[in-house]
Amino acid sequence: MRSLFTGFLALLTGIAGCASYSSIPGPLPKTSCTTVSSADSSVKISVDPYVQGDRQRLVFGGELGQDGVIPIQVVVENSGNSRLLVRSSDMVLILPEGARINQEGARAACTKVSVPVGMVLGGLVFGMIGAAAAFNSEEKARVARLQDYQSKEFPDAALAKGDSAHGFLYFILPGRSIKSALLQVRLTNMDDETSSVMQVGLESLEYQPPISPASDKPETGSRKQ
């Protein structure tokens, strides 16, 4: 009886462990990013798309690209005398054919990559008790993931001279290959209420959509000639 109970606890712990999430510190801005400056060099924008799975795991604890989510790190630096308002809602990804993709935000990205399989497994194996334990663990993991994504999200910021802001934008991309794109950033001059637009080219985005499990299955049967 004791061994059965011990096994029960071990399996529940395993289910809970599968749903755990550990916050990982965000990286510092990198000087090797793709960078553009305004005509008068008063504004500099750098972008760094995290397309590679190993880089996503390092920062976000998993491969967001498998669910079609690509985080792009953005750094905006203001060297001019005017105060600038920079907002994530004013940043748009433009694809080669002209399609525009708005960044979805941390909450949408978190929902996209959260797949609650533990609760189903726990319910099948241990009924309501197992499902409840798995649900509790998954809810904690979901909250931790959301808080982590939000802490790394690009903030809306009012930049005085010498100020900078940085963080991630979360884009949910269509299910096709994308080799390049433009990040368009609208900046608002808070002193005269005018706005300007800057574009940063992502020439080597090289995004590949996630592969459907069905497409991985080998063909069966013989083909008639």
Write up what this structure looks like.
The protein is globular, with a radius of gyration of 22 Å. With 225 residues, it is of the alpha+beta class. Strand 1 and strand 2 form a beta hairpin. It folds into two domains: 77 residues, no CATH class; 126 residues, Immunoglobulins (Immunoglobulin-like). The protein is built from five helices and nine strands, in the order αββαβββααββββα. The strands form two sheets. Strands 4, 5, 6, 8 and 9 form a five-stranded antiparallel beta sheet that branches. The chain has a four-stranded antiparallel beta sheet with strand order 1-2-3-7. The chain starts with a helix and ends in a 9-residue tail after the last helix. Helix 3 packs antiparallel against helix 4.
From the structure above, extract its key features.
alpha+beta; disordered C terminus; 4-stranded antiparallel β-sheet; 32% helix; 5-stranded antiparallel β-sheet; Immunoglobulin-like; 5 helices; single chain; 225 residues
Q: Would you give the CATH topology of the largest domain?
A: Immunoglobulin-like
Mean pLDDT: 81
Q: What portion of residues is helical?
A: 25-40%
Global geometry: globular
**How many helices in DSSP terms?**
5
Which structural class fits the helix and strand makeup? alpha+beta
Compute the number of strand runs: 9
**Order of H and E elements:** HEEHEEEHHEEEEH
Biggest sheet statistics: 5 strands, antiparallel
- What is the CATH architecture term of the largest domain? Sandwich
> How large, in whole angstroms, is the Cα Rg?
22 Å
Q: Just give the CATH class of the largest domain.
A: Mainly Beta
Percent strand: 25-35%
Tally of distinct domains: 2
Distance between the termini: 61 Å
